[in-house]
Amino acid sequence: MTETPNAIDMRGIVKRFPGVLANDRVDFACRPGEVHALLGENGAGKSTLMNVLSGLYRPEAGDIFVGGQRVSFRSPQDAIAHGIGMVHQHFMLVPPHSVAENIVLGLDRPRFLLNLGQVENQVAALGEQYGMKVNPRAKIWQLSVGEQQRVEVLKMLFRGAKVLIMDEPTSVLTPQEVETLFSTLREMTGRGHTIVFISHKLDEVVAIADRVTVLRRGRVTAASLAARDVTKAGLAKLMVGREVLFRVDKGPSRPGEVVLETDRLCATNNRGLPALREVSLGVRAGEILGVAGVAGNGQRELAEVITGLHPATSGSVRLRGMPLGKRTHWLELGQQLAHVPEDRAAVGSMPGLSVAENLILRSFYCPPISVGWGIDRTAVRKNAERLVAEYQISTPTVDTPVRMLSGGNLQKVILARETSGHPQGMIAVHPTRGLDVGATEAVHRLLIGQRDAGVAILLISEDLDELLSLSDRLAVMYEGRIVGEMPTEGANINTIGLMMAGTKVEG
Ligand SMILES: Nc1ncnc2c1ncn2[C@@H]1O[C@H](COP(=O)(O)OP(=O)(O)OP(=O)(O)O)[C@@H](O)[C@H]1O
Ligand SMILES: [Mg+2]
Questions:
Q1: Cα 182 to middle of ligand 2, angstroms
Q2: Which residue's C-alpha comes closest to atom 7 of ligand 1?
Q3: Contacts of 506 (CB under 8 A, 6+ apart)
Q4: Given the CA of residue 405, which atom of ligand 1 is nearest to it?
Q5: For residue 318, is pLDDT > 80?
Q6: Ligand 1 pocket test target in 41, 240, 403, 406 with most atoms within 8 Å of CB
């Protein structure tokens, strides 16, 4: 591979969306061989700026220079021709196709000129070189999320990317996968590649970045700081404009009777393999039961079976002693069981509907929203305006479709809807994934507030720190089973880690 000068210089970038100035004369520069972290609260304009750099959006003003040459991109193909590639948060792979097929998909070269066997060899060699193990013949659907991400990175490297933009790459990875990704990134910068790294996890930023740029409301608030000169607290303040505590203040729990209960629950996953094996759990009013485990050990199925999105093969789920089964219509559950799902875009919201409409998806059949057979438009609007203020949702108007909101603000819409209806039980799955430090703090407060109001909360998260600071009790899942249950107070992190990895621990 020949060396190409790949210094990037963006100057005065302006990008507007209806009602928002997403990038307001932004300057951003990065140089070969560095990991440059791009930080900012939800909606600050990070993804927008990188979509401009990767040719997906055209800016209204501003210039981009690559290796000192002014460039103008009309498409991501243009950007990749200049060595710039982006790995989006939502992967764009075709599940029935193989890894190698996905890598050549969409290439300009006619397909008959491509020898798939050769591509497979090249992909395997690239994987070897950068420490990304993946079988080029495997079908995408067979791969874990972490492996799919490797395919996206390999795809960009195969196309000659020298500048790789990664938009929140670690939010879907297990701690072990994060380590692997980081060593790949170091391998890449060692070979002169540039990495632009977007993340809300400041510990990671401090660990991997060489320099840091911070955006706030579309503007740069700190440009190219040396990472060794920054602290987590300092970065947080630059992002949200105030101090962030990084600590959850909570009093002791006062658990009441069991509200949400599973009894020897069994289920199979989408491939027909056992996903839940006799899971029995009880969550009491006024407590948070945290479920710890490495992704893929049944947590997702547990949440889906409880909320009726996935069938159980045997066992039962009860809410206040009432069995929830096939015939329990979700209307009956009504306000009683709140659900903050893992997949916010597909399960948690209706992307084409407005903020106001999404906020009533759960309550539109109840007064004051429904009047007779109709819906009271004024009440819908009032409800929305109240919740937008209360939960500090940043949106141009309550009529804006939610697909235009940033990830963090979409999560706030779901949380506002789910918690404002006075539920008795709540399932929260990765409730702060993708949220900025300020929003994370707000969500943590909200969950504790719900707990103190007597809601029984089942919290599923891969973030052990989050679980330890929020939960009153912890259950550890491994291969579809609960392998241990303990009070959080005095819990030993090492023991939990061992249990999560499937090691039997005497206790
Ligand atoms: N396609 C779009 N149409 C309309 N508005 C958009 C679009 N994309 C982004 N926006 C708006 O532009 C602003 C910046 O959004 P952007 O996605 O760049 O934020 P972000 O910094 O990546 O946030 P997050 O950390 O939540 O991902 C937000 O107010 C968002 O609502
Ligand atoms: Mg973003």
A1: 20
A2: 404
A3: none
A4: 31
A5: yes
A6: 406
Joined tokens for residue 369:
């929203």
Query: What structural domains and CATH numbers belong to the chain?
Result: 8-240 (3.40.50.300), 247-336+425-431+456-507 (3.40.50.300), 341-422 (3.40.50.300)
pLDDT tens-digit readout, 391-431: 888 899 999 999 888 877 888 898 888 888 788 999 999 88
Mutation test of ligand 1: which of 404, 432, 443 has the most ligand atoms closer than 8 Å to its C-beta? 404
In which band, very low, low, confident or very high, does the pLDDT at 272 lie, cut at 50, 70 and 90? confident
Please give the full DSSP string across 26-73, using - where no structure is assigned.
Answer: EEEEE-TT-EEEEE-STTSSHHHHHHHHTTSS--SEEEEEETTEEE--
Nearest alpha-carbon partner for 454 in 284, 303, 252, 307: 284
- pLDDT tens figures, 126-170: 999 998 888 999 998 888 778 889 999 999 999 999 999 999 998
Which secondary structure element, helix H or strand E, spans residue 384, and what is its range?
Answer: helix 377-390
Ligand 1 atom at minimal distance to the Cα of residue 40? 21
**What pTM value is reported for the model?**
0.84
Residue ranges lining ligand 1, Cβ < 6 Å: 17, 20, 22, 40, 42-48, 404-408, 436
**Ligand 1, atom 10: closest residue by C-alpha:** 404
Asked if the model's pLDDT at residue 334 lies above 60, the reply is: no
Written as six digits, the tokens of 77 are 């193909």
Say which residue, 273 or 161, is predicted with more confidence: 161
